[in-house]
Design a protein that fits this description.
The protein has 332 residues and is of the alpha+beta class. Helices cover 57% and strands 11% of the residues. The longest helix is centred in the middle third of the chain and has 30 residues.
C-alpha cells in the first residue's frame, strides 16, 4: 500500500497500455441460471397456492382459527411473489439489448427485494392480529384446523422441495425460504390444534400466529438486506477485495492494482473493473498479462465479467482518491 498525493483522481488514458474487457453476457456465458423447468414449477406453485389460500380462509373463518387465517394471508402474499419470480426467471434469460446492455440479470434481484418488502409488511399485520385475538380469545374448531393444516403442509412442502435445486438464485431462494417458513408454520399449527384439542387452551392459536409472524419478518428482513446490498453494488459476500488485488499482483509484470470495484450482476455473475500498472512492453506481451488476469479472476474468485485498464508504471503520483488504496508489489 502507498499514498499517492492529495489531488483528485485524474490518471489520463493517454498513459494507458490498453483496455481489456471480458464477459459472459452474450454468446458464451458462465451464468448458472435456474433450470428451464423452474418457470413451469413456479407457474404450478401459483395455482396450488391460490387453491390453498381459498381453503384456509374458508376453514379459518368457519373454525374461528386466527392461526389458519394468518397462514392464509401469509400464503396470499406468495401469489404476487411467485408471479414476480416467474417473470424474473424468464427475464433473466433474455439477451442484452442496446438499452439494457447488462441484460436482465437484475430482474431476479429486484423481484427478491419486492418479495421481501411484502413479507415484512405482512408479518407485522399477522403479529397485530394475533395480539388482538390473544386479548379476546374465541373457541377454535380443532378438527378443521388440523386437517386443513395437513393439506397446507403438503402444498407448501411440495413447493419447497420443487424449488430446492434453484435456491442459489436469490430470487428463487426468496421463494424457497418463504415456502419453507410456510411449511414450518403448518407444522406449528398442527401441533397447536392437537394441544388445543386436548387441553382446551385457546390462547395457543394466537401465540402460534405471533410466532409465524415473527418468523416471516425475520426471513423477510434477511432477504431484504441481501437484495439491497446487491442493488447498491455491494461487494459480493464471498469475495475479499484485497485478496483479489493481491492475486493479480502474483502475475509477472503487474506492479500495482488500484480502483478495484467488484459487484454482482445476477446469480453467479460477478463483475470487476480495475486499473493495473505495468511497465512498457509490446501489445502482445500485455495481452498475455491480460489473459492471465482473466484466468486468475475466473478460477479463484468466479469473476467472469471484467474491465481492465492498463496504465504505465512509474508515473508521478497525482492523486489519493482511490478505492481501495492502491496495492503494490512488495519490493524485496
Amino acid at each position: 500500500m502507498h499514498d499517492h498525493g492529495s489531488e483528485g483522481h485524474n490518471r489520463s488514458h493517454d498513459h494507458s497500455h490498453g483496455h481489456g474487457h471480458s464477459h459472459g453476457l452474450g454468446g458464451h456465458s458462465h451464468v448458472s441460471l435456474p433450470a428451464e423447468g423452474m418457470t413451469l414449477i413456479l407457474g404450478g406453485a401459483v395455482v396450488a397456492t391460490f387453491a390453498l389460500v381459498g381453503v384456509e380462509l374458508v376453514a379459518g373463518y368457519a373454525g374461528h382459527s386466527i392461526a389458519l387465517v394468518s397462514d392464509a394471508l401469509h400464503n396470499l402474499t406468495d401469489v404476487p411473489t411467485l408471479v414476480l419470480s416467474w417473470f424474473a426467471t424468464r427475464w433473466a434469460k433474455k439477451p442484452p439489448t442496446p438499452q439494457k446492455t447488462y441484460g436482465y440479470h437484475r430482474a431476479g434481484i429486484l423481484a427478491a427485494f419486492v418479495n421481501a418488502m411484502l413479507l415484512s409488511l405482512v408479518s407485522i399485520a399477522l403479529i397485530y392480529e394475533s395480539v388482538v385475538r390473544l386479548r379476546s380469545p374465541v373457541e377454535v374448531k380443532t378438527d378443521l384446523m388440523l386437517w386443513v393444516s395437513v393439506f397446507a403442509l403438503l402444498i407448501n412442502g411440495g413447493i419447497t422441495f420443487a424449488v430446492t435445486g434453484g435456491r442459489r438464485d436469490l430470487n428463487v431462494r426468496s421463494i424457497w425460504v418463504h415456502n419453507l417458513g410456510d411449511a414450518l408454520s403448518n407444522l406449528a399449527i398442527i401441533a397447536g390444534a392437537i394441544a388445543i384439542h386436548y387441553t382446551g387452551q385457546s390462547w395457543v392459536d394466537p401465540v402460534i400466529g405471533m410466532a409465524i409472524g415473527a418468523m416471516v419478518f425475520w426471513s423477510g428482513i434477511g432477504i431484504l438486506r441481501e437484495s439491497t446490498h446487491i442493488l447498491l453494488e455491494g461487494l459480493p459476500r464471498s469475495i475479499d477485495l484485497e485478496s483479489v488485488a493481491r492475486a493479480m499482483l502474483r502475475i509477472t509484470g503487474v506492479q500495482e492494482v488500484h480502483d478495484v470495484h467488484i459487484w454482482t450482476l445476477g446469480t453467479d455473475l460477478n463483475a470487476l473493473s480495475c486499473h493495473i500498472c505495468i511497465p512498457d512492453m509490446h501489445m502482445e506481451d500485455s495481452a498475455k498479462i491480460l489473459e492471465q488476469v482473466h484466468e486468475i479472476l475466473e478460477k479463484e474468485f468466479k469473476i467472469t465479467h471484467t474491465t481492465i485498464q492498463f496504465e504505465r508504471a512509474g508515473l508521478a503520483a497525482d492523486s489519493n482518491l482511490y478505492m481501495p488504496e492502491p496495492v503494490q508489489r512488495s519490493i524485496s
